[in-house]
Amino acid sequence: MKKLLLLVFLALTLVIALSLTACSRNYNVTANSNQQAEQASTSPSISKQEGTKENVAQTPPSTTVDELVKFPENYADGVLYTTVNRSNIREEIFTSREAVNAVKSGQPIPSGTVITLMDYRDGKLFRYVVMEKHTGWGVEYPPEKRNGEWEFQAFNADKSVNEKEDLNRCFSCHKSAEQKDFVYTFDQMRSVK
Ligand code: HEC
Fold it and tell me: Model confidence over 65-121: pLDDT tens digits?
């Protein structure tokens, strides 16, 4: 009889011990998965990746020009390679020394080149027009529109983007200068000192 009681006691202890372990394991499992969920939602690398994917997916190529050609804050550090005077209009055109050197030595205008035209009317700054070239730019355009790897942008005198400007006009007119890498003042760039 004593033996039987002892056995039952042992069995009960075992059951209790087992269920306790099981419980604590369960608890650990939930705690872990909560932690993982938390990490996933707060981890900067993961949310950054998702963010970039979303941005790329939401931005169609046709609306990226604003982001592509930024206002060239440092244009005046480059070379004022030509000035054009026509009735009440005066244009001062700047580019980088690298671009000038490339053109002078018969090399293609390098990727990253910015050309800035300051447009004055009656002696007063009226606007800036800018063209910028980068490897891979322009691929989304049909051949009849594309100006190689150039993009265009028009800025108001206060350096803000002129949203009203139809940039197709820039493409269609500069297309005529295709033989000179779409740059009308290519020869002036080549002959500057
Ligand atoms: C109707 C033709 C025409 C249109 C439209 C036009 N351009 Fe031009 N662009 C020229 C000509 C011609 C020159 C050479 C300077 C001059 O004679 O005024 C020039 C010069 C430039 C230059 C200096 C580099 C070069 O090609 O000589 C830049 C930069 C420029 N244009 C940007 C623009 C931008 C940006 C637009 C659109 C907002 C634009 N252009 C629209 C004809 C045009």
Answer: 567 999 999 999 999 999 999 999 999 999 999 999 999 999 999 999 999 999 999
69 lines ligand 1 (CB under 6 A): no
Prediction pTM value: 0.73
* Mutation pick for ligand 1 pocket among 185, 187, 190 (CB with most ligand atoms within 8 Å): 185
Letter string b/e over residues 53-87, b meaning 16 or more CB atoms within 10 A of that residue's CB? eeeeeeeeeeeeeeeebebbeebeebbebbeeeee
Give the mutation target among 69, 88, 131 for probing the ligand 1 site: most ligand atoms within 8 A of CB. Answer: 131
